[in-house]
């Protein structure tokens, strides 16, 4: 198993390509999906969840890391002082 | 007849095991047999439980130790499975005390799940709190001791709120049976009970005890704790308070709140602890929505969550056990040294993220779809956002910085066989539930009409997860773990306690000392004068009537003085006792 992981680690370019291919496929797949129940506007837009995923992810990192650095982050012995 | 009722209650077996264990310290094989056997017996027993048993009439109250319906059964099922997995994982632990604490804790949790009235519930509820604190203390570090004290203080407070609610409810309706409370007829007493339950479910703003205490617990202790306290609370909320809108809103906020902290935290087990807050949010939200599908989803998610969160805590615990640290900034590149722990933890990580074919996919989707179906798009989007954050922090960040990333050079080897076996069973269950969802669905309280593997839902999930992965690799440098802590709402009582102590040492203690001085100068003199008067009286020849009185009075004075010790825990204890007395008076009047 370690060998398999080493092998994958050495071929990270290949992994990256597979990953991007997968991303494109998910959006293409979304083109052909039948929408039975539309609960709100987003359900009708093709690729909405892709956008939601990437924007949500980046937004969350920026907001949380930002809040943490500006306000919440303290040294580990903060409560001992 | 009574004996058979006692024996059929699974808690009895765990209590019996806890009593037996101290005698088996030297007999290793027998001890292991008890550790594995008792959860197995309990798991078998729950299939034979009658619908109702263990009715006891005591002091004018009807206590019900056994009330079994579909909701009870599914929780008992997963609790006993998790107890079994946890015991295998902790088999190598030599300290009997840890096993005893775990057994009492599991027993308490099963007792709460089975009870049919609030008094029994309260007894088992407190049993859980007081046994689980030992699982924290057995880590035996200074931080753990302190975190344990905070844990028990917070839970005692929550327990008192619950008790106040129970007493007020009894005063209002003279009935202690634990049944569903109608949303339109809820009184102040019912809300007090709900707050008591919510504290154990770690609903913000009363959640901070969880990420404070769990990361400080012992390796096996954390595996037990992550499964029982919050999920027992989910069970009682599902039993008593389905359909309360406050729960739906707080639950959805909870999902995002926990994930937000998980993104920035450094300690692996603290990240996982924040994910409990987040995942329990889905359950609380589902219960709050209250439709059959939402409650089903909440229960299914509790089931799936117990297994995969146990698995994640086992994985992080294995790393902590073998390397001595669970801080991400000190770890990295461990895949060469602990490959099995990596495989299992990644399975836990993809399960919690809700990948297709895993247990998270079939349960989480149910709650989210139920929110959509009952026209709560905002709740639905909040929970989807939390799903993004979950995959980001536990699905990718945690394994990446422990097993990949820069090689830290930390010495490690794979965990003992029993730890790996525990993880393997949990990992198997994650896939089993994901591939055969009907196994779980047919245990749920209501009939299930939801098919998780439909094309649109698959498309939605794959897009969400895929593009979250993309987001991670864009920002991977920004996510580098930092050896810092982040403030949470426990700041108020951790720093607040400082202020209180300072106030106590500057104001209360001097006042106390002054009172002592006054007593010593005036009270003692008065006592001594009295004593002298008595001894004079005694001298006069009637010593046989009041013999020893003088000494008695002096002793009484000393005793009064020793009551005022100036120790904070004594004052807290006295305050708690006083609250109890007041509550009892309220009920009696």
How would you describe this structure in keywords?
heterodimer; A: 81 residues; mainly alpha; flat; B: 589 residues; 3 domains; two-stranded antiparallel sheet; 3 strands; globular
Could you please describe the fold and organization of this structure?
The complex is a heterodimer of chains A (81) and B (589). Chain A contains 3 helices and 1 strand, in the order αααβ. Chain A has helices at residues 2-10, 12-32, 48-72; one strand at 73-74. Chain A is flat, with a radius of gyration of 20 Å. Chain A has a domain at 1-33. Chain A has 81 residues and is an all-alpha fold. Chain A is 68% helix and 2% strand. Chain B has a two-stranded antiparallel sheet. Chain B is 74% helix and 3% strand. Chain B has helices at residues 2-8, 10-20, 28-45, 70-89, 96-114, 118-137, 142-173, 188-200, 209-213, 219-240, 245-264, 268-289, 292-323, 339-353, 359-373, 377-403, 417-435, 437-441, 455-475, 490-546, 549-563, 568-588, and strands at 52-58, 61-67, 485-486. Chain B has 589 residues and is mainly α. Chain B is globular and about 100 Å long. Chain B starts with a helix and ends with a helix. Chain B has 3 domains: 1-241, no CATH class; 246-482, no CATH class; 490-588, no CATH class. In chain B, a hairpin with a 2-residue loop joins strand 1 and strand 2. The mean pLDDT of chain B is 90. The chains are: A mainly alpha (81), B mainly alpha (589). Chains A and B meet through helix 1, helix 2, helix 3 and strand 1 of A and helix 11, helix 16, helix 19 and strand 3 of B.
What order do the helices and strands come in, and which of them pair?
The complex is a heterodimer of chains A (about 80) and B (about 600).
Chain A: H1 2-10, H2 12-32, H3 48-72, E1 73-74
Chain B: H1 2-8, H2 10-20, H3 28-45, E1 52-58, E2 61-67, H4 70-89, H5 96-114, H6 118-137, H7 142-173, H8 188-200, H9 209-213, H10 219-240, H11 245-264, H12 268-289, H13 292-323, H14 339-353, H15 359-373, H16 377-403, H17 417-435, H18 437-441, H19 455-475, E3 485-486, H20 490-546, H21 549-563, H22 568-588
Antiparallel strand pairs in B: 1-2
Helix pairs in contact in B: 2-3, 2-5, 3-4, 4-5, 4-10, 4-13, 4-17, 5-6, 5-10, 6-7, 6-10, 7-8, 7-22, 8-10, 10-12, 10-13, 11-12, 11-16, 12-13, 12-15, 12-16, 13-14, 13-15, 13-17, 14-16, 14-17, 15-16, 15-17, 16-19, 20-21
């Amino acid at each position: 198993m370690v060998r398999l992981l080493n092998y994958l680690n050495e071929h990270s370019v290949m992994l990256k390509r597979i990953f991007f291919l997968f991303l494109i496929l998910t959006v293409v797949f979304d083109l052909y999906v039948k929408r039975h129940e539309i609960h709100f506007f987003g359900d009708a837009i093709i690729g909405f969840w892709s956008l939601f995923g990437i924007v949500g992810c980046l937004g969350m990192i920026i907001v949380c890391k930002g809040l943490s650095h500006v306000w919440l982050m303290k040294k580990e012995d903060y409560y001992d002082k | 007849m009574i004996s058979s009722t006692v024996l059929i209650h699974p808690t009895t077996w765990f209590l019996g095991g806890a009593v037996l264990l101290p005698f088996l310290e030297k007999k290793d094989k027998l001890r292991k047999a008890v550790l594995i056997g008792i959860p197995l017996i309990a798991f078998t027993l729950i299939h034979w439980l009658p619908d109702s048993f263990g009715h006891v009439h005591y002091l004018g109250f009807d206590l019900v130790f056994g009330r079994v319906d579909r909701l009870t059964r599914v929780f008992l099922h997963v609790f006993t499975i998790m107890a079994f997995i946890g015991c295998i994982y902790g088999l190598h632990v030599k300290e009997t005390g840890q096993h005893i604490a775990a057994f009492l804790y599991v027993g308490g949790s099963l007792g709460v799940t089975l009870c049919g009235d609030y008094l029994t519930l309260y007894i088992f509820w407190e049993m859980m709190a007081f046994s689980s604190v030992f699982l924290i203390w057995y880590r035996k570090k200074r931080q753990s001791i302190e975190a344990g004290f905070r844990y028990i203080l917070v839970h005692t407070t929550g327990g008192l709120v619950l008790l106040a609610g129970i007493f007020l409810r009894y005063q209002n309706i003279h009935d202690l049976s634990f049944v569903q409370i109608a949303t339109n007829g809820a009184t102040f007493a019912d809300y007090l009970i709900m707050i008591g339950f919510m504290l154990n479910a770690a609903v913000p703003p009363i959640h901070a005890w969880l990420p404070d205490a769990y990361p400080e617990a012992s390796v096996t202790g954390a595996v037990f704790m992550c499964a029982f306290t919050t999920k027992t609370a989910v069970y009682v909320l599902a039993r008593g308070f389905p359909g309360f809108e406050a729960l739906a809103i707080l639950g959805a906020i909870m999902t995002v709140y926990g994930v937000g902290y998980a993104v920035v935290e450094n300690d692996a087990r603290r990240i996982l602890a924040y994910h409990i807050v987040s995942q329990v949010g889905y359950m609380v939200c589902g219960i709050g929505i209250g439709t059959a599908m939402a409650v089903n989803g909440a229960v299914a998610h509790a089931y799936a969550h117990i297994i995969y969160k146990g698995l994640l805590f086992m994985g992080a615990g294995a790393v902590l056990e073998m390397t001595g640290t669970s801080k991400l900034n000190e770890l990295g590149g461990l895949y060469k040294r602990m490959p099995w722990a990596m495989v299992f933890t990644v399975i836990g990580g993809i399960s919690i993220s809700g990948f297709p074919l895993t247990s998270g996919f079939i349960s989480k989707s149910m709650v989210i779809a139920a929110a959509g179906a009952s026209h709560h798009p905002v709740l639905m989007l909040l929970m989807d956002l939390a799903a993004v954050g979950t995959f980001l922090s536990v699905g990718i960040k945690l394994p990446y910085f422990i097993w990949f990333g820069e090689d830290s050079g930390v010495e490690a080897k794979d965990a003992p066989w029993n730890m790996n076996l525990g993880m393997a069973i949990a990992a198997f269950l994650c896939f089993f539930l994901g591939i055969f969802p009907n196994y779980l669905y047919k245990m749920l309280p209501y009939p299930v009409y939801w098919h998780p593997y439909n094309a649109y839902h698959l498309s939605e999930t794959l897009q969400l997860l895929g593009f979250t992965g993309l987001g991670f690799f864009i920002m991977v440098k920004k996510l580098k773990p930092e050896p810092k802590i982040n403030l949470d709402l426990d700041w108020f009582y951790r720093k607040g306690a400082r202020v209180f102590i300072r106030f106590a040492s500057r104001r209360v203690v001097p006042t106390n000392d002054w009172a002592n001085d006054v007593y010593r100068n005036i009270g003692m003199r008065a006592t001594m004068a009295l004593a002298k008067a008595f001894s004079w009286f005694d001298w006069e020849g009637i010593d046989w009537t009041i013999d020893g009185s003088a000494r008695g009075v002096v002793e009484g004075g000393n005793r009064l003085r020793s009551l005022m010790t100036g120790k904070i825990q004594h004052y807290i204890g006295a305050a708690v006792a006083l609250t109890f007395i007041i509550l009892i008076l309220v009920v009696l009047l």
